[in-house]
Amino acid sequence: MAELRQKENIHFDYDDDADVMYVSFGTNEPSHSEHVNDFVLLDIGLFTGLPTGFSILHCKELKEEEFKSFLGDIREMVQQQLMKKAEKRFHQKVQASNRIFNRALKEARDEKKELVEA
Fold first, then answer.
1. How many angstroms separate the CA atoms of 1 and 14, rounded?
2. How many angstroms separate the CA atoms of 7 and 31, rounded?
């Protein structure tokens, strides 16, 4: 496998035997791959749920327009993944806020009750 280049923390490798381009974002996070289409796999971090890289299968045989289209597919999948993550975090924050708010309401009732009884 030949390392094509490294830019910032992004690593580009190519396996000539398998005709696969591997792109890693350099996170070193264990990941699983999600199928984008017949030529593209998106790597998702097991801990963060964020994209950690992608692979393009049959890279050399792809025509330029197909390659550009697949990059668009990857972009869309990454955006969906990031939105899922943001929605999950937002949902968790809303739940935490609701718990705090409900506890504050209960404590306010208790405080009022004590004021009336005093």
1. 6
2. 21
Count CB-CB contacts under 10 A for residue 83. 10
Is 117 domain-assigned?
A: no
- Residue 90 maps to a domain: no
pLDDT tens profile 71-109: 888 788 778 877 887 788 777 777 877 787 777 778 788
Q: How many domains does the chain have?
A: 1
CB atoms near residue 65 (< 10 Å): 8
In a domain, 35, yes or no: yes
Rg of the chain taking only CA atoms, in angstroms:
24
Q: Which domain holds residue 23?
A: 2-85
Element (H, E) at 114: helix 64-117
Question: With 0-12 CB in 10 A as exposed, 13-18 as middle and 19+ as buried, what is 34?
Answer: middle
